[in-house]
Amino acid sequence: MGLHPHSASCRAREILDRVGDKWSLMVIAMLGERTRRFTELKRDIDGISQRMLTVTLRGLERDGIVTRTVYPVMPPRVEYSLTPMGATLMEAANTFVAWAESHIDAIDAARAEYDSRAAELEALKKTS
Amino acid sequence: MGLHPHSASCRAREILDRVGDKWSLMVIAMLGERTRRFTELKRDIDGISQRMLTVTLRGLERDGIVTRTVYPVMPPRVEYSLTPMGATLMEAANTFVAWAESHIDAIDAARAEYDSRAAELEALKKTS
DNA sequence: CGGGATCCCGTAGGATACTG
DNA sequence: CAGTATCCTACGGGATCCCG
After folding, report:
1. What's the CA angle centered on B71, arms B66 and B77, to 5 degrees?
2. Smallest CA–C1' separation from A79: which nucleotide?
3. Which residue windows are transmembrane per the record (chains A, B) (predicted)?
4. All domains of chain A in start order, with CATH
């Protein structure tokens, strides 16, 4: 199985759409360490808004990746954690993150070279 | 290494932003099979526009994931293929795709249960 | 054939205010 | 504390036309 064109895109894309958005992986990473409360996540995930944290958590909960536990007290206390499936997703994501970390330098280099080459071509156009 | 919150998101997110968009993985999958020409990709990737194919290929080329080879003939002939780094990226992506394929049923089930439960709660509100 | 240049729209997602 | 409800904008991405 794997990334052959017609299975890869069709269903796997849905999953990528869920987990590949701006915040999901970050939330999963935080919950991979330990169970956390809403405000705790909001504080520790730099730049996320209440709205997006809620939306992200709801989506992950709906897909069975995180659990939401409400304690009926005042003030409210809600805890989030990874499901077993969520934990396996995190491991799968780790493979990708590892790839990214070990190739980030090569990518930066490729970008720099591409950009300088593009700038060169731009300079040539003015000469002609 | 891996998906711990503060290394994972910061740089790995950039990579995810490149490869997690609507078309990149699909293009990589196609080029993973073999070298292809622009029009060939456009024909085989269902629903992609010229513009997005161009934009996607440029981005992947810039990051050193695909190579672009121009043959100076009329009519023009341009071939795209994966770089060695692109090939390793495809393998890393395969891990994720494999996860998605083996959990898609569980996710569908989780969604169905979540939705029916939500509908139930909705019904209760009308009673009260 | 393989694009570049424009125009245009839907939506992801930020800011802010309110609530049980 | 843990959300929900609105409003609003930036931008991803489609459609279309043109060009070497």
Report:
1. 80
2. D2
3. none
4. 8-127 (1.10.10.10)
